[in-house]
Amino acid sequence: MIEEKLSIKQIGERLADAVNLKTNPICVYGSDQKPEDSIHSSQISTCLAQSMYLIAEGNILSPVYVGNETGQVFCRCIGGPAWFGYGRFDPKLPGMMSTGSADAKHAGKHLKRDENIAYATYWAVGDIKRLGRYVVIRRCDDIEEDPGIKCIICFACGEEIRDLCALAHFSSNDVFNLISVPWGPACATLVTYPAGMAENAGPARISLGPTDPSARSWMPKNCMAMGIPVEIARGMAEDVSISFLAEKKMSYNVNS
Description:
The chain is α+β, with helices and mostly antiparallel strands and 256 residues long. The protein has helices spanning 8-19, 48-57, 80-83, 93-97, 115-125, 158-169, 186-192, 230-239, 244-255; strands at 26-31, 39-40, 64-66, 134-139, 151-156, 179-180, 206-209, 224-229. The chain is built from 9 helices and 8 strands. Strands 2-3-4-1-5-8-7-6 form an 8-stranded mixed β-sheet, sandwiched between helices. The protein is globular.
């Protein structure tokens, strides 16, 4: 008898319950249609990643979408559309990420030693394929039928992240490459990489971060994010009951 696959809702519930997440697991997919009663990310925040955090916190209950539409602001970053496959990276970006753009209109962020290293970093990402006309983000709890979820995102404290990492390793023999802490904006850590959009990202792997210092303006100091490719997340959820987390959960219940 073939066991029925866990639904997206069940995956989110199991992962959250396993480590006592205080936030809601959220998920990402592409669509050619805007979901009913959805909100464009720019109406919530100029940073798409911050909008995602607000969904996870429970402050935003509607589905959130982003798309590269004429007359519609994508996000505050000039690289935003490119990270979602809606165009190429702006040639000024390597300068902006290092010591300043060549036209002297943008101060450097000093996230890279020099413009050559920054350019090589963007080149290393490869082409980025878009998920659809729109990228949709919503809570896993709201998904009744899977529309083609690409990844699941958890915002969590250090202990919860450590336990989720250990759970990911439970059924894997990949010691070094299952989990990555990649360079890039927060939205790339949460969506572009775990959703399999970046050409040179390699096999499906979990992304931890973000490593982008600009996330300090909205992300709590004790918080990290984990972007998990959906099939890895499904395997993790299936393993909860036979892993060390089942024993830990019993301990929680006894001491509560």
